[in-house]
TrEMBL record:
Swiss-Prot/TrEMBL keywords: Cytoplasm, Metal-binding, Repeat, Transferase, Ubl conjugation pathway, Zinc, Zinc-finger
Transmembrane segments annotated in the record for this chain: none
Molecular function via GO: ribosomal large subunit binding; ubiquitin protein ligase activity; zinc ion binding
Domain of life: Eukaryota
Residue ranges constituting the RING-type domain according to the UniProt record: 1162-1209
Biological process, per Gene Ontology: protein ubiquitination; rescue of stalled ribosome; ribosome-associated ubiquitin-dependent protein catabolic process
Protein name (database record): E3 ubiquitin-protein ligase listerin
Self-association and partners: Component of the ribosome quality control complex (RQC).
Organism: Saccharomyces cerevisiae (strain AWRI1631)
Enzyme Commission identifier(s): 2.3.2.27
Length: 1216
């Protein structure tokens, strides 16, 4: 039963041959059954791959020789039967070449051909049983000798099958397709005519369902010898594709066929006018979806050329499939990839925009081509640089630098793209002008205007690109230290100075932009000696290690401006280490340089800026005489000059003079300029202010310098003592300048408004010190200052410039008496509630909202008094109070517009995804609502609460806050001070307009608003919390409140009782109040005849989610019914009236005191004091003489429907 080994059947046949003449074993009865059983066993059994072919061939060779010894027909039939059984047993003769040769000659070719035809005409079920039978027959036919006629007939048979049922033949007969392809791939030249005829018929036979089969045949034909033998073959292919293109087939299927065609034939088809394949392929490229992962482009890439690769790329971009397009690149010819890189923006679109793996492959492919093509190398370098400028960050730094270094190492010339030969030119490309707002944030201040400034805001995106480029360059130099030089270090240092402006002007500052290594302060090999630098400033050097060289001194003015700021910083850093002797020794040369600059008409703007830097430095020295000489020189330049001269040139002298007016240690009576000369300057200024030129744009710089001049000058007490001229001039200038702030097209508007505030602050200090009355301009100035709050400045951004201005404006407005702003109450209210009036200026919103809050508190005090007086008046009248109560309440409610705002503008997204400015404004509206509760009376508080309840706003706000706060983010709240929860100041963040700061402020303000709601709506908190159906949420809220809010509220309650405990106990020696901070319990007891009457107030850990519990500890001297009624009344103050523990305690102590003082309790509520209005029983029944509270009796009348006594049922005439 084991498998036979090679040699076994040779041995058997040898045994048979040697014994057959002796008839040792019977041929038919013993030998024939052996061979039959062997073939059956071999058909059933598998063999190891190593022996199977050899054993099978050995068996059939010997079996056929054995059968030749018999002349009987039955043996021949048996052999034939066993051969066909073996062919249909599942083994494929394609794996047994020798066996195929052995069996092919057993029968003539006609026999094999007929068997094949019989097979195809047999039932489908039979064909399924006979696995591999047809293929084995076909293999025997094509290898049998003299088979041409049989093969020709079989080919005709196949063609007839196809023609008979072209739509189903390939599904019905699996072997037909393979057989035809075999013929096309063979050397059977005798079939040429038949094949040509069949190919010509295919266009008429092909259908959409059979396209794939016929297409395979046509593709095989195009690559066969037969195609070249048939002159009409190309026509057949054209006809085939004409038909195919009419089908509704995906283009990928048809193009896949074309991709398999012989390349020469494909090119011929492309030229066919009837097919228009170029348009067809172009359209395919435009709409290609990469859904086959680029399989269509495998092989010869027939469809890709310089035009189609571009079309395919643009299609990928349009469909957002650049990543998939990149996956195709590995299948591209190098020439096509080069074309793509050179003729499209592919690199800039794909590099660093795809996945990391794809990106690295793309870079390596591009780098390979770059090494042999400088144009590609430069393009690759530009793309790396462009991406570094737009996306450079600490995380991406290594990637960009690594690629740049690899590219430079492979293509050295590209280093010029990364490391500029002319850094000043690069700087000028991104920074074409000086933004005047730089004067507001830089140390040079108004000296900025010594150079030409632009009133239009600088393009911050370009500024950011320059900064990122410098950061990239800085990192690149870390990797290539040999390429560091002073020009590059100077460039990086200048850009590092530019970062200050960017971070102050941008709405999204980035402190990481300061992270430069190759600067003068850290790396540069320049001479930082103070004396040498001063010498360089006066006389620039030719080069070397000098700080200021000729090429910088003569450079672009914008670059020079920022370089000058660096120069100022270097001097500032080193001046403290310079001795007074050294400073005094340098003064003469400085004085000479300034004098020469001022008097020389050829002096440039840059000379004046260098003078300003030197004056700022040396003004710190103690050499008063030299500085006085320079002030006198500069002051003399201003005396008697005409307005035109001032505007054209001499304003620069005023700028320099201003630098010498900062004298922090001057004596009280010190006057920086001789009084006589100063008065002459005042007369010149008065003349300038009276001129027609004063309101012209050309006067704008002079106006700024004059404001700065008077701001500094009026700080000197000696100047203020000279008389009112200086004050009058200052206030006139200030009034005019403030009025100009209200004109949109005023030049340097943002700087002008800030300068006005500086001068006002100085003048205010001067007026308060001297006790002088404000001049005729006083009211106008204050009105214009108030108007500044409402102005919308077109150039305003939420940046540091805005912060500085609104900080100053708030300081100025806050210094005014609040009554000056009361007339603006309605206007401020309308502006705050109408966002369109103030747009996205968050600092303006902050200022107006905080002022509105102050005005709300102030006006509420008067309203409370008015309201309570009206209530008392109604109480004392004979009129039924129900109607009049409503009338009173309607005039003292929360503003409906404010309630509508918090109803309509609830943020829809979570804080993380919501506009931060809109979010905080919404919280500010609630903050304003809660400010109405501040120090208000009990009656008004109830009106407000009822109003919020009716609008459904209390529960809605509770839900909003607990949804917005991440209740499980305990780490954040543990870092928040309790004062930040219990207290909130709208201007507490110093007018920071940045998203990150406002985001954190919003989180804390949510906590504060929750705290304030708890504080003001009392027991409504508990009702809301208990009605939450989501138990998980309810538990999270309880944990959060218990940990972060409840302790503050409980402490407040205890502090409130502590602060007023003496007042309660001093009036009654029998009263004792004890506080237990551990159990959060308050106990009040009365000592009556050596016995205690005691009550306790228990504050739960989750207060106010759970109400305070009032418990009667011990009763003495009163009935149980009255005691219970007192406890209920005391509890009602907390749970029903939103009162505090102190309110409840006061009611209880008064009840006890009055009870034992002989006062009669109300016969309805059994309390002496009414729980709500705290009044004594004042209504007496004329019949039974029992006393009642007016409120209790009124409630009884309403519920009973008549005015009879609840005890004796007698009629009681009632006047409330």
């Amino acid at each position: 039963r084991t498998s036979p080994s090679p040699g076994f059947f040779n041995a058997v046949f040898a045994l048979y041959s040697s014994t057959k003449r002796h008839s040792f074993l019977d041929y038919y009865l013993e030998w024939l059954p052996f061979w039959q059983k062997s073939v059956q066993r071999l058909n059933e059994k598998g063999f190891s791959a190593r022996n199977s072919a050899e054993v099978l061939n050995e068996f059939w060779t010997n079996f056929l020789k054995f059968a030749e010894d018999s002349s009987e027909e039955r043996v021949k039939k048996m052999v034939e039967s066993e051969i066909f059984n073996s062919l249909s047993c599942g083994k494929s003769l394609s794996e047994y070449t020798k066996l195929n040769q052995t069996l092919s000659g057993v029968f003539p070719p006609d026999k094999w051909e007929r068997e094949i035809e019989d097979y195809f005409t047999s039932d489908e079920d039979i064909r399924k049983i006979k696995v591999s039978f047809e293929k084995n027959l076909f293999a025997l036919l094509v290898t049998s000798p003299n088979n041409e006629s049989a093969i020709s007939r079989l080919f005709d048979f196949f063609v007839q099958l196809i023609e008979t049922d072209p739509s189903n033949v390939f599904n019905k007969y699996d072997g037909v397709y393979d057989a035809l392809n075999y013929f096309l791939d063979s050397d059977m030249i005798f079939l040429n005519g038949k094949i040509g005829k069949f190919i010509n018929e295919i266009p008429t036979l092909v259908q959409e369902s059979t396209y794939q089969n016929f297409a395979g045949i046509m593709a095989q034909y195009s690559n066969s010898k037969f195609f070249k033998m048939n002159t009409d073959a190309i026509t057949s292919l054209e006809d085939f594709f004409i038909v195919a293109l009419s089908f509704n087939l995906p283009k990928t299927i048809i193009l896949a066929t074309m991709n398999e065609l012989d390349n020469d034939i494909y090119q011929q088809l492309m030229k066919s006018d009837s097919l228009e394949l170029e348009l067809y392929i172009e359209d395919f490229m435009k709409n290609y979806k990469f859904d086959d992962s680029g399989e269509i482009f495998k092989g010869n890439n027939k469809f890709l050329n310089q035009r189609t690769i571009t079309t395919l790329y643009r299609s990928a971009v349009a469909n957002g499939q650049v990543e998939q397009f990149c996956a195709v690149l590995s299948k591209l010819d190098e020439t096509f990839f080069s074309t793509l890189l050179l003729n499209t923006d592919f690199l800039s679109c794909a590099l660093y925009e795809v996945s990391e793996d794809t990106n690295e492959k793309l870079f390596k492919l591009s780098l390979q081509l770059a090494k042999g093509n400088s144009e590609i190398a430069n393009k690759l370098a530009q793309v790396i640089l462009q991406h570094a400028q737009v996306y450079f960050s600490p995380g991406a730094k290594e990637k960009y630098v690594t690629h740049a270094v690899e590219l430079i190492n492979g293509c050295n010339d590209t280093s010029q793209i990364f490391i500029p030969a002319n850094a000043i030119e690069v700087f000028a490309r991104y920074m074409p002008a000086i933004d005047y707002r730089s004067s507001l944030v830089s140390s040079l201040s108004t000296n900025t205007h010594l150079l030409l400034t632009d009133d239009k805001p600088i393009n911050l995106k370009n500024m950011q690109k320059l900064i990122r480029y410098a950061l990239f360059l800085d990192a690149l130099l870390d990797a290539l230290p040999e390429r560091v030089n002073n020009h590059i270090v100077a460039f990086i240092t200048v850009v590092s100075e530019l970062v200050t402006d960017y971070n102050c002007l941008s709405e999204e500052p980035n402190d990481l932009y300061y992270d430069f290594g190759h600067t003068f302060f850290k790396h540069g090999k320049v001479n930082l000696n103070f004396s040498d630098i001063v010498g360089n400033v006066i006389q620039p050097a030719n080069g070397g290690d000098a700080m200021l060289t000729f090429d910088i001194a003569e450079s672009n003015s914008v670059y020079f401006f920022y370089y000058s700021r660096v120069l100022y910083k270097v001097l500032l850093n080193s001046i403290d280490t310079v001795s007074s002797t050294t400073l005094n020794g340098l003064l003469a040369s400085v004085e000479s340089f300034v004098t020469k600059t001022v008097r020389d008409q050829k002096s440039t703007d840059k000379d004046y800026l260098l003078c300003a830097i030197l004056l700022l430095m040396f003004n710190r020295s103690n050499s008063k005489d030299e500085m006085t000489k320079l002030r006198t020189l500069l002051a003399s330049q201003l005396i008697g000059i005409r307005e035109v001269e001032l505007v054209d040139q001499e304003f620069k002298s005023l700028a320099l003079l201003n630098n010498l007016l900062d004298i922090p240690q001057a004596d009280k009576q010190f006057v920086p300029i001789a009084p006589q000369r100063l008065n002459m300057i005042f007369r010149s200024i008065l003349k300038w202010l009276d001129s027609d030129l004063v309101y012209e744009p050309s006067f704008s710089t002079v106006r700024l310098l004059l404001l700065d001049f008077f701001t500094k000058l009026m700080r000197f007490e000696g100047v203020r003592d000279m008389g009112i001229t200086a004050f009058e001039l200052s206030e006139r200038l200030l009034a005019d300048s403030l009025s100009m702030c209200q004109i949109d097209d005023t030049l340097y508007l943002l700087e002008l408004r800030s300068s006005c505030l500086n001068l006002y602050e100085t003048l205010s200090q001067g007026v308060s010190k001297n006790g002088e009355e404000i001049s005729e301009y006083g009211d106008e100035i204050q009105e214009n200052l108030i108007e500044l709050m409402f102005l919308n400045f077109n150039q305003e951004r939420n940046n540091q410039v805005s912060t500085l201005f609104y900080q100053k404006l708030y300081k100025v407005i806050s210094s005014m008496e609040l009554k000056k702003l009361e007339s603006q109450y309605k206007r401020i209210f309308e502006v705050v509630l109408n966002d369109k009036d103030i747009g996205s200026n968050i600092n303006q919103s902050r200022l107006l909202t905080t002022l509105l809050g102050s005005l709300v508190v102030k006006t509420q005090q008067d309203i409370i008094i008015e309201y309570e007086l009206r209530i008392q008046k109604q109480t004392g009248s004979d009129v039924d109070g129900s109607a009049s109560d409503n009338d009173v309440n309607s005039k003292f409610k929360l503003p409906q517009k404010l309630l509508q705002k918090v109803t309509d503008e609830v943020p829809k997204e979570y804080l993380e995804y919501e506009n931060k400015n809109s979010f905080i404004k919404y919280l500010w509206y609630w903050h304003l609502i809660l400010m109405y509760f501040k120090d208000t009376s009990y009656n008004m508080r109830q009106i407000f609460i009822e109003q919020l309840k009716e609008a459904g706003l209390i529960n809605r706000m509770f839900d909003f806050i607990t949804d917005q706060i991440d209740l499980r983010d305990t780490e954040f709240w543990k870092q928040v001070d309790t004062k930040e929860i219990s207290e909130y100041n709208i201007v507490g963040n110093n007018f920071s307009p940045y998203k990150e700061d406002i985001f954190e402020e919003c989180k804390k303000l949510l906590g504060h608003t929750l705290y304030q709601l708890f504080n003001n709506v009392g027991c409504l908190t508990s009702i809301w919390w208990l009605n939450i159906k989501d138990r998980t949420l309810q538990n999270d809220i309880e944990k959060f409140v218990s940990e972060f809010i409840s302790p503050i509220l409980i402490k407040n309650e205890f502090d409130d009782i502590n602060s007023k405990m003496d007042r309660l106990t001093s009036n009654d020696d029998a009263l004792t109040i004890k506080l237990n901070n551990i159990t959060n319990e308050v106990k009040a007891s009365y000592l009556i005849d050596d016995q205690k009457l005691e009550i306790s107030f228990k504050l739960p850990k989750n207060y106010p989610l759970t109400n305070i519990q009032v418990n009667g500890v011990s009763r003495v001297g009163i009935s149980e019914q009255k005691w219970k009624q007192w406890i209920m009344s005391t509890q009602h103050v907390i749970t029903g009236m939103n009162g505090s523990v102190l309110d409840s305690l006061e009611l209880f102590t008064k009840n006890v005191h009055l009870q034992f003082s002989g006062f009669e309790e109300c016969a309805i509520c059994y309390s002496i004091l009414h729980a709500v209005d705290r009044k004594l029983p004042s209504k007496t029944c004329p019949t039974c003489k029992n006393k009642f509270h007016g409120a209790c009796l009124y409630k009884w009348f309403r519920s009973s429907g008549n005015n009879t006594c609840p005890l004796c049922r007698s009629e009681i005439p009632f006047r409330r």
